[in-house]
Amino acid sequence: MATVTITIEGKQVEAEHNSTLLSVFKDHDILVNQICGGQGMCASCHFFVVDGVDSLTQPTTQEQMTLQFTKIDRPGARLACQSRAIGDGIVIELPIGTFVESERDLETKIGRKADKTLIHPMTGEVLVEAGKLVLRSALEKMKESSSKFADYLSKR
């Protein structure tokens, strides 16, 4: 079977032609969330294409809808579960930070500085930048985003 070369965070890896980036991440022990189980319904497996966008399949309709809903404010965002590697030269970066496990997890951090950027687990939205104080407003922002995301999913 044909392989392609992908650079992830500066490390080159080989992957089977037409494999999803999610499977590539798993095969190379790169931790990535997949809250929806790889259905393209959340943005927890998102990554950023730095180079080689033409070496990936075009975004699926599902991926486009999900990315339109999310609040990821960096260009080149794609979903690993929906993107397939079809050529060499793909260079990608992963989101910097950590996904918040739950509202309760975020609540325990209120009043302390975030040691890493805190990211909403489903939408990919930055809740608190690294080094900033975690405020109750971040929890409210997370609840609001979770509620909107649940509404979005229920209408599909």
TrEMBL record:
Pfam families: Fer2
A GO term, aspect molecular function: iron-sulfur cluster binding
Annotated ranges, domain 2Fe-2S ferredoxin-type: 2-98
Name used for this protein in its record: Ferredoxin
Source lineage: Bacteria, Bacillati, Cyanobacteriota, Cyanophyceae, Gomontiellales
